[in-house]
Design goal:
Chain lengths: ~260, ~250
């Protein structure tokens, strides 16, 4: 019974999120058409997200790049496959590690802060106040956050790829005794633009998921300060679960597309 | 004219409005009295379309707002202003941007003109020179007054006041009441005010209504309410602890 109730609740929420997503797209198109798209609001939000997460994202990137090289490097060196280290690490970073880890960090940092901010606005009637001022809350609050999160996740993932490979290169040279040249050659030989873009496409989808879940949890907050706390943690948990689930389907989709194109 | 007819609203199993009927004439000040938690704020939120009733109608100039689509509702809201019980100022914006919110969104006035307008409204609510303070720097009473300045910024024809003077000192309360009256007299504003403050109610009201148990149990002119034989009205107006309202 408990499980059935939970499942129902979950499906309801997914329905609500889907509607919120569609409303966001509707308002985006409507604003672009009428020339009223809030570029300043978008840039503000992007800056906000960037400042909030750039440091953590960089640390994560360097650390993962370095660890991957250590893990893979020794093994491959023993088998005499040094020439593959750079390539394998670059593929792992570009396809999976960078988009997934960046979005988990951003879900914790940014998704939660969106949920807390909008949740507070909800319980203090600020969302109602927007409506009375003839302003649609999805238009005013969700649209800029949605696009900022989507765009910033792509940019942060690029950054993680770069710092991750720098971290990996440093370890490869100083710890595994590869030459910088063999490492970079291997990267350039194996990594294709398709892999990079596949990863960035994932990051874009994850950014959208984080923003929509954060906003949805904020809008559906009730029950005072305690409710805001609950929405905040919920937004992180749900976003990470959703990202991991969606990642599987995106991976299948991207690799199928790969075999169709190439 | 605003006509509320047979309005019902429940939250879960809790029925809050159980058939509210009310008429508000153009240019009139109606005051709604009622004990805390009886659904006065919920009623105001229905009148400005923030909540949808389970049953019943709200006609504003003949249009049923419970069935309006958003664009039309927004057009109507441009003619309305609401002061929330909690003020509901936008935390992330300073006083000036809060008051100018509607103006900035819906008109293309220059920054200077907007600043001028905001300063004028701040003067009206007795808070000159506070343009650049953040809501977190204001006291409860000041927030209320900024909320009022925001509600009147677009010069609405209909203003809904949710406990505008709760938390204000008596001098400020009179000042707000005078502002209320002058908006009515100079601009012909129609208003609905919810309050617990009897003095304030009788200062601004053309008519007074008592909301109790999810319905309007009595409505009439000040004199009619003062002299009402309805024991509920008598208890509330005199503020007695013992009476029919306390027996539930
Ligand atoms: N959004 C809501 N969800 C659930 N219950 C609500 C909501 N808004 C108001 N209520 C309930 O409706 C009742 C009336 O509230 P309200 O209109 O704020 O009272 P008041 O007359 O003091 O303004 C209260 O019991 C409150 O708990
Ligand atoms: Mg109230």
């Amino acid at each position: 019974m408990y499980l059935i109730k939970k499942a129902k609740q979950f499906l309801n929420e997914v329905g609500g999120m889907t509607i919120l997503f569609l409303q966001t797209i509707y308002w985006t198109i409507r604003n672009i058409r009428s020339g009223k798209f809030d570029v300043k609001g978008l840039i503000d939000q992007m800056a906000h997200i960037g400042v909030d997460s750039v440091l953590m994202v960089c640390i994560t990137g360097v650390s993962v790049g370095a660890v991957l090289v250590v893990q893979i490097g020794y093994q491959f060196a023993q088998m005499g496959a040094q020439g593959y280290v750079g390539g394998v690490v670059a593929l792992a970073m570009a396809r999976e590690m960078a988009p997934i880890l960046t979005s988990i960090v951003v879900a914790g940092r940014v998704g939660s802060s969106i949920a807390a901010e909008l949740g507070t606005m909800k319980i203090t009637e600020q969302i109602d106040a927007l409506d009375t001022l003839a302003t649609n809350p999805v238009d005013y609050l969700v649209v800029p956050r949605f696009w900022a999160c989507t765009i910033m996740l792509v940019m942060l993932t690029v950054l993680v790829n770069v710092v991750g490979m720098i971290g990996g290169a440093v370890v490869a040279v100083y710890q595994i005794d590869l030459t910088l040249e063999s490492f970079t050659n291997s990267v350039l030989e194996w990594l294709r633009v398709y892999d990079l873009f596949g990863g960035l496409f994932k990051a874009m989808v994850f950014g959208a998921i984080i923003a929509i879940i954060g906003c949805f949890k904020g809008f559906t907050t009730s029950g005072g300060a305690e409710g805001v706390g609950k929405s905040t943690t919920d937004s992180v948990v749900v976003a990470i679960m959703m990202i991991l689930a969606v990642n599987y389907f995106l991976t299948v989709f991207i690799s199928n597309l790969n075999s169709i194109i190439f | 004219m605003i006509i509320v007819s047979n309005l019902h609203k429940s939250f879960g199993s809790k029925a809050v409005l159980k058939g509210v009927n009310l008429k508000i004439y153009d240019g009139e000040s109606l005051v709604i009295l009622g004990p805390s938690g009886c659904g006065k704020s919920v009623l105001l939120k229905h009148i400005i379309g923030l909540m949808k009733p389970d049953k019943g109608q709200i006609l504003i100039d003949g249009e049923d707002i419970t069935k309006l689509e958003q664009t039309r509702m927004d057009e109507l809201r441009m003619r309305m202003g609401m002061l929330f019980q909690s003020a509901a100022l936008f935390d992330s914006l300073n006083v000036e941007d809060n008051i100018a919110f509607g103006i900035n969104r819906h008109t293309s006035l220059s920054k200077r003109a907007v600043h001028h307008l905001v300063s004028e409204k701040l003067e009206m609510v007795g808070l000159p020179g506070t343009n650049y303070l953040m809501p977190s720097e204001l006291s409860g009473g000041m927030r209320k007054r900024v909320g009022l300045a925001r509600a009147i910024a677009m010069e609405p024809e209909i203003i809904l006041y949710d406990e505008p003077t709760t938390g204000l000192d008596p001098i400020m309360t009179s000042a707000i009441d005078e502002l209320h009256l002058s908006l009515k007299e100079k601009l012909g504003v129609t208003s609905i005010m919810v309050t617990h403050d009897m003095k304030s109610a009788f200062r601004v009201a053309d008519r007074v209504a008592l909301h109790y148990g999810g319905q309007i149990v009595e409505i009439g002119s000040k004199e009619e309410i003062m002299n009402s034989q309805n024991p509920l009205v008598q208890q509330f107006v005199r503020g007695e602890a013992q009476g029919p309202m306390t027996q539930l």
